[in-house]
Amino acid sequence: MKKATMIMDRDYTIGRVDPRIYGSFIEHLGRAVYGGIYEPDHPTADENGFRQDVIDMVRRLNVPVTRYPGGNFVSGFNWEDSIGPRSQRPRRLDLAWSTTETNEVGLHEFVEWARKANTDVMYAVNLGSRGPDAARNVVEYANHPSGSYWSDLRIQNGAKDPFGIKLWCLGNEMDGPWQICSKTAYEYGRTACEAAKMMKWVDPSIELVACGSSGYDMPTFGAWEYEMLDQCYDEIDYVSLHRYYGNRTNNTPDFLARNMDLDGFIKTVVSLCDAVRGKKHSKKQINLSFDEWNVWYHSNEQDKEVVKMGKWGRALPLLEDVYNFEDALLVGAMLITFLKNADRVKIACLAQLVNVIAPIMTRNGGGVWAQTTYWPLMQASMYGRGTALRPIINSPVYDCTDYEKVPLVDAAATMADDGSVTIFAVNRDMQEDVELDCDLRAFGELKIQEHIVLHHDDVKAVNTEANPDNVVPAAGKGGVIDGGKMSIVLPALSWNVIRLSK
User: Using an 8 Å Cβ cutoff, are 395 and 472 in contact?
Assistant: First the structure.
């Protein structure tokens, strides 16, 4: 059996884990809203039309923050369309996704849904077709107590108390040519700066996320971050990153190594933030909001046909990736990467939450079930709190098409305030189990409380409404701790959660 070693120490700290790295995203896209969180004719719908079976699934994920309402959608969105009596709200053509938005679910409704789902709202403002004036108005509407036009209109619309939205996105992917009213880095940086000033003048307690480049492989990447930050560094708090991966060549070893690219992406954006900080002689540190990340490729061809057949329809079944077991392994590896960069990655939103490239799937009028990717996100959110630790790992490696010296075992660890420790580990070996020997002597006496394993013999195995338990976590074989040293077996191709208690 192959062996890997890991040394951990309570003083090898990376930083405090911000719970918001376990966030998610609901965009007015596909069936995320209509048929996802909202379906008033569904047997489980509550008095507001929200599917309670979906809310239950979201609560189990323990999602601290949910980004809304977009995404590409937000760059053509008039936020005022989403308030007031539903019967008076306009139907609009959504140019981002070639559908019709009815505005049945708007700002008030989403805030109510978020409360029921035990999540906070991360609200995106339109800096595409709109600008700073609309941005400051929606902050006033949402957060100002009373006594002004927009706050009094909120009260008139049924919400006496402010919504208290504390986290705001300044647009979305504004360097993307697909984006409505895309901008140069200078144009966006200046707009973001002025919007941020006005928004914080309305409510100084809010935090703001500025758009980084849409992707690591964009021709604008790097230069965009530097110029954009040069214009708005003093006014914003986070820079956004977006990244999706796919396995179009059906090369599992290569696919499972993609989080190495993710780690490089994060470190590059950190260096760009710090370069601007140095140029400005600033004491302020800008951190990262990885507010779109996931596996996304299964539905690409299907989406082309859906749009051809149903352009301008309502809630078309777009981006409905059916995730398999290997997708869950990569999602787990990406979560490990976020924990390893917890000193700078403070927010991360799995895109998205329901139906649209999502861990939760529904059938209109029917059931709800967890996709394979649901499980690593849920377990990381449940157990990956506290302080992120920096493990020293020595693992066998492999080479693949795009990467060399890929560790078979990748792992991260967190220490809770009560001294308990959780290790998250992926074994990428296609054939063999790996014995992980871990030095835990710095933590005093620990015992293995639980070993959870996600594994399936078929990397393409999926969960469906008819077979929702095909790929689910199971109890591992556990391990032994002797003299502060733990030995535990990580099955071939597996996601592992090892919980250690005093």
Answer: no
